[in-house]
Amino acid sequence: MENQSTVVSFGVRLASQVRRLGNPVVVGLDPSLDLIPPAFLSGGGPSAAVERFCLAILDAVGDLVPVVKLQSAYFEVLGGDGVHAMAKVAASATARGLLVIIDAKRGDIGSTSAAYAEAYLGPRAFLPCDAMTVSPYLGWDSIEPFLSVALANHKGVFVLAQTSNPGARDLQFATVNGKPVYQLVAEHVARYDQAEEPSLGLVVGATFPGTAEALRSSGARSWFLVPGIGAQGGSLDTLVRFRRPDGLGALLSSSRALTFPDRFGGAAAWSEEAVRSSTRQLIDTVVAHRAA
Amino acid sequence: MENQSTVVSFGVRLASQVRRLGNPVVVGLDPSLDLIPPAFLSGGGPSAAVERFCLAILDAVGDLVPVVKLQSAYFEVLGGDGVHAMAKVAASATARGLLVIIDAKRGDIGSTSAAYAEAYLGPRAFLPCDAMTVSPYLGWDSIEPFLSVALANHKGVFVLAQTSNPGARDLQFATVNGKPVYQLVAEHVARYDQAEEPSLGLVVGATFPGTAEALRSSGARSWFLVPGIGAQGGSLDTLVRFRRPDGLGALLSSSRALTFPDRFGGAAAWSEEAVRSSTRQLIDTVVAHRAA
Q: How far apart are CA B197 and CA B249, in angstroms?
């Protein structure tokens, strides 16, 4: 596996992993200290608690889903110790055969983006990571280092096109010659990576099925990382609009509803079984929607 | 000083500090391992080298300028140890009486932005920091936590409006009802913080004097953090277009030309004296342009 991962592109590995597991669900790790069950909090300080909690989630769902997504903010808020914990969680996920997306939404001028790209996607990255999220506000030269470093190292990138929050409308619907920003982003990414199974994808929120449909009907083959189902209001009924004709291409990401089932999922108390059960339930629903 | 910083707004502290030092120059710390002189590299690993280099810069210029800006990417690339080093450098800068801007360009959906805001601007931030940079791609709800946490804690935010790189044109010139994205950002920030001396500012690149002039002539009082002079092609001759009528309001940020004078400034070799001399030279030029 080690060897294969150095020669097979992220896109091909992703497609193969989704086929193998039979579902495209991404479990998001947003280990907010405000939400982690008290049992995890004793001993070793907050970063140890965050690490223990994330490893328990990996124990619960590591054999069910193809991908996990680590939200950098909840590690970063704990400073250097939190970043060390994020690296350990990523290493554990990788060792279990999961693909790892770091949700960092980085983006800067070219020379600084190059440093960020090396940090997460380069051969000496500080943590094992298969793909990361990138914000395109600074334009094409600002995302170039991420795209090129990713392709050179068989990694992936998901560039923010249309995010799942209500504020997504504020700037992502702005236009250049009549074309909305999210479409310009999608076209740029598609031009950059014309592989049959692309490694460079887009973030397209579940709350914007119209955007997904517009992009797919204009021929986009990119993988979409799709946040926003459930709590944020995105509906699984629209899932078909996010997929490619081959049925692949849409990664459904869910975080709190899966990992905090006691708070957001109706479970009486937090347990690995409750996390596993909420994840299984989402997988079953997604698979049923695919069959439909 | 400790006490004052908890009760006086960032905007007021910034104006007072710029007046006291007599210049608005920001020394940017971009401690790329590829550029740091070999003398710093031995002993303690890369994060120790980065820390030593940054402390040497603070020794060289800490009494000359009002503000230093730490570019997160060059610390982050070293993982948790690098983030620990960033915190130590920020603490040392604060202890010397410098204001500290963390250039992190974060931005995410609201709940995640809240975690980022707590990380850098909250009462339990992992490092001392007076202000940070924020990217608005995800819209107003995505930057709200940064703005509100900053104001509640007497800190500041610089929201990317028009960046200094050529790619700034790609998305920041997109329009909504004829108004460019950078202007929407400026208007939103001005509406949010109507203090006479605002704490919420904008990033406006030196390479876009037309943007600065348009924003100033429409009455914007926000502080502009202005990167891009020198290497990126921004000219000090246009500086007056970035300032408010009272002569304040424009922070001029320079990184490599000041901190790597051997590579980007014509000095024969790196030394604290050469760093100090290149910084003095920029200050003198900026002051001369103010008088003109």
A: 9
| Whether A105 is catalytic | yes
Sheet bearing B175-176, strands edge to edge: A179-180, A175-176, B175-176, B179-180
Q: pTM surpassing 0.95?
A: yes
Is the ipTM beyond the 0.90 threshold? Answer: yes
Residue B169 neighbours by CB distance under 10 Å? 16
Q: Are A221 and A249 in contact (CB under 8 A)?
A: yes
Q: How far is B291 from chain A (nearest CA, A)?
A: 32
Q: Any idea what DSSP says for residue B245?
A: T
What's the average model confidence in pLDDT over A216-233?
90
Which residues of chain A neighbour B34 with C-beta distances below 8 Å? none
Pairing status of strand A200-204 against strand B200-204:
unpaired
Residue A234 is classified by DSSP as B
Q: Which residue type occupies B165?
A: N
Range of the domain at B255: 2-291
Q: Among A132, A165, A202, pick the best mutation site for testing chain B contact (most B Cβ within 10 A).
A: A165
Whether the predicted pLDDT of A196 surpasses 60: yes
If you write DSSP's letter for every residue of B154-200 in order, what string do you get? T-EEEEEEE-SSTTHHHHHT-EETTEEHHHHHHHHHHHH---SS-SE
Q: What is the dihedral of CA A127, A165, A207, A90, to 10 degrees?
A: 10
How many residues in total does chain A contain? 292
Percent of chain A with pLDDT over 70: 97
Q: What is the pLDDT of residues A22-45, one digit of tens each?
A: 999 999 999 999 999 999 998 899
Q: Residue B50: give its domain's CATH number.
A: 3.20.20.70
pLDDT of A179 > 70? The answer is yes
Q: A-chain residues within 8 Å CB-CB of B90?
A: none
